[in-house]
Every structure is written in C-alpha cells, then in structure tokens.
Design a protein that fits this description.
Bound molecules: adenosine-5'-triphosphate, pantoate
EC number: 2.7.1.169
Distance between the termini: 14 Å
Helix content: 25-40%
GO molecular function: kinase activity
Enzyme class: transferase
Function: Phosphorylates (R)-pantoate to form (R)-4-phosphopantoate in the CoA biosynthesis pathway.
Strand content: 25-35%
InterPro entries: GHMP_kinase_N_dom, PoK, Ribosomal_Su5_D2-typ_SF, Ribsml_uS5_D2-typ_fold_subgr
Shape: globular
Order of helices and strands: EEEEHEHHHEEEHHHHEEHEE
Length: 283
C-alpha cells in the first residue's frame, strides 16, 4: 500500500532577535526569544512521480488562499533525491511573522522521513530545516525555537542555541495586517546593525520580561510599521503587554483581555504556547 504521512509543526512568533553570522548556514542564525505557538503547518506527504507542492495559506481575514509551488520545499525534497506530492496547510498567514516557513520545512521533513525511511533523528530534521531557512533568508532562529516548544530563549545561533524553554499557561493573541518580506530585512547590513544595537541586554526570566524586552527592542529597532501603532497604543492604554510580530505587520499580546482589544482592529486570533515541536499525526 502506498505510504502517506501527516505531520504538524508549530509556528513561532519572534519577539526580538540579533543575526549571528557563522562560517556556514549550520552555524549562522540568531540570538533572541520568541513564542512557539499552537498554530502552525500541517504537511501531508505521499510518494509521486514528480514533486508537487500545494499550499493552503490564509489571508489576514482568515479566508483561505491556495498557492502552488514552494522553492523551499522543492529544494528540500530534491536534496534527498525524493519525489513526493506535498500538501501543506498554514494555519496563519505566510510571510507575516509567524514562522510558517520554518514550520513548513519541519512538518514536511518529519512526514517525508516517515514515508521514505530517511533515518533522520529529530535533531537531524531540525538541522536540515535550519540550514535551508538560513540559506534562503526566510528565517534565522525560527527552526531552533519551533524544534521544541514554549517560550524559547536563544543565546547562540543554530539549533543547539536554545538556552531555556519556559511553559507558562498564558493567553496569547495576535492580529495581523499582512506580511513583511523577511529576506529584505535579514539580508540588509544596515537593518541588522540597527537590530543589533536594539538587542536587549537582559535575558528574560519569565513571560513578563520577555514582553518588555520585545517591545523595547521593537521600538529601538525602527522596524515598527506605522499601521500597527494604533494597536500598540490601544494595548498600552489598556495595560496589555504587546509588541510587533517579528517580521510581520502585526501585533501579539498577552493576557485574558488582549483578544477584546485586538479585535477592535481586525481578526484577533487566540493562541497558546505549543508544548512540543514537530510531531507525526495519526492517520
Ligand atoms: N505552508 C507552507 N508550505 C510550503 N512552503 C511554505 C509555507 N509557508 C512558507 N513557505 C515557504 O516560505 C516562504 C516564505 O517565507 P517567509 O519567511 O516569508 O514566511 P514566514 O516564515 O511565514 O515569515 P517570518 O519568517 O517572518 O516568520 C514562501 O515563499 C514559501 O516558499
Ligand atoms: C529573523 C526572524 C525574526 C524571522 O522570523 C526569526 O527567524 C528570528 O527571530 O531569528
């Protein structure tokens, strides 16, 4: 019987980051911290005569959008010499700071590993995903964070750079107005100089300190789009910890009252921390 596998990988909202260039994509990445979230990418992989990728993306309104083809996924499969039909569903808008590219690679390779008996460990899957992200400039630290769960604090680049993971039972929420083209930002020396100068010198001991670090970083980095200023101001007025989804035109916030405030600006999406990394799903 033809084998099919389905895997889920969580998304990641980066609160703050600093690019760290190593000698190779394996040793290049970022320090920083972010939230591994319970919405991500589900990938279905089955053997096929030729590689195909069909993506169900979602607009900020929540409306589905079908996309065909993914250079990242096609290169991933080609690097293993495998031919598969891949269908992915991104729970959140692609390109909007939710780590959908990292989740797509992790979910697809986790499923492909099962279908084609690639013999990869979880660490091996994460390492290949990280190197692909970095080489395509679609991310720096998302794979390292999403390979596990929780509030992930990264103190070194690469998939071994996560120093701590915290798992508070927190109510999270986000609203997004759309994408920011990540490659333009993280491949710009000028932007990365500003990002490095804004990087906080405190390692967060809890969610509150993470949110404070994130907002101070966002303000100092110059990355905040004017479209989200009213949202941040409303959260500030309501005493709701909030910051910019890095790198997307959106806001993430914490606390029971966050949803009501964000819903005043668009489709507010409730989130929780995801307690795990990529997982194979029962068929
Ligand atoms: N669900 C998916 N299925 C297949 N490919 C995807 C998926 N999501 C993203 N990608 C690939 O990643 C690329 C977009 O990467 P990008 O980094 O802009 O998105 P993101 O990871 O959602 O945003 P961010 O890095 O700011 O969090 C797409 O061009 C596509 O090749
Ligand atoms: C660069 C980045 C913000 C893109 O999502 C993320 O990969 C990170 O935190 O390194």
């Amino acid at each position: 019987m033809e084998r099919t596998a389905v895997a889920f990988a969580p998304g990641h909202i980066s609160g703050y980051f600093q690019r760290i260039d190593g000698d190779t994509p394996r040793t290049t990445g970022s320090c920083g911290a972010g939230l591994v979230i319970n919405r991500g990418v589900t990938a279905t992989v089955r053997p096929a005569d030729r590689i195909s990728v069909v993506i169900t993306d979602h607009l900020p309104t929540g409306d589905p959008l079908i996309r065909y083809g993914s250079g990242l996924i096609e290169e991933l499969l080609g690097s293993f010499g495998i031919s598969a039909a891949v269908e992915t569903v991104a729970d959140l808008p692609i390109g909007a700071g939710f780590g959908m590219s990292a989740a797509a690679i992790l979910a697809t390779l986790t499923a492909a590993n099962a279908v084609f008996d690639l013999g990869l460990t979880e660490c091996g899957i994460a390492e290949r995903a990280h190197m692909l992200e970095v080489s395509h400039n679609t991310g720096l630290g998302d794979v390292a964070a999403a390979a596990g769960g929780g509030l992930a604090v990264r103190t070194a680049p690469g998939i071994t750079g996560v120093a701590t993971r915290m798992f508070p039972d927190a109510d999270l929420c986000t609203v997004t107005f759309g994408s920011i083209f990540t490659p333009d930002i993280i491949s710009s020396p000028e932007q990365m100089r500003k990002v490095s100068a804004a990087f906080p010198d405190r390692t967060p001991a809890n969610l509150t300190e993470f949110m404070q670090n994130s907002r101070e970083f966002a303000e100092a980095s110059g990355l905040i789009p004017r479209e989200i200023r009213p949202v941040l101001a409303a959260c500030d007025d309501a005493g709701i910890p909030a910051s910019m989804t890095m790198l997307g035109c959106g806001v993430f916030a914490t606390g029971r009252d966050a949803h009501e405030i964000l819903a005043g600006f668009g489709r507010a999406i409730p989130l929780k921390l995801c307690p795990h990394g990529p997982t194979l799903m029962e068929m």
